[in-house]
Amino acid sequence: MHLQQPVTRGVAGAITNVQIYSVGPSPSFNAIMLDIDFIIQRSTPIGEVFRTLNVLGDAKDDIFEACITDKIRELIV
């Protein structure tokens, strides 16, 4: 599954790409991969780079938390 949407906070012209896909078959477990990427479709002045990275880092954390359940949180140690 692939979802693409605009970032709605603090970074003009940024798009979020979220992909969920299965990881190779294994007889002992099932696994999926969650891939969260951002694309900025504009020039970013050098003075804004670290602020932009911080905002997108927070957005990534929010997306990750929204994608997992409490049961999965218990499995992540």
Q: Helicity range of the residues?
A: 25-40%
Tally the helices: 2
Mean of pLDDT = 89
End-to-end C-alpha gap: 26 Å
* Global outline: elongated
* Radius of gyration, CA atoms, in whole angstroms: 15 Å
Number of strands: 3
Q: Give the topology string: H per helix, E per strand.
A: EEEHH
Name the structural class.
alpha+beta
Q: How are the strands ordered across the major sheet? A: 1-2-3
What can be said about the biggest beta sheet? 3 strands, antiparallel
The stretches of 5 or more residues where confidence is low (pLDDT under 50) are none
Tell me the strand percentage band.
25-35%
The gist of it:
By secondary structure, the protein is an alpha+beta fold.
What features would you describe in this structure?
By secondary structure, this protein is α+β, with helices and mostly antiparallel strands. Helix content is 32%, strand content 30%. The protein has two helices and three strands, in the order βββαα. The chain has a three-stranded antiparallel sheet with strand order 1-2-3, with helices on one face. β1 (2-6) and β2 (14-22) form a beta hairpin. The radius of gyration is 15 Å and the shape is elongated. The chain starts with a strand and ends with a helix. The mean pLDDT is 89.
Which descriptors apply to this entry?
3-stranded antiparallel β-sheet, 77 residues, alpha+beta, 3 strands
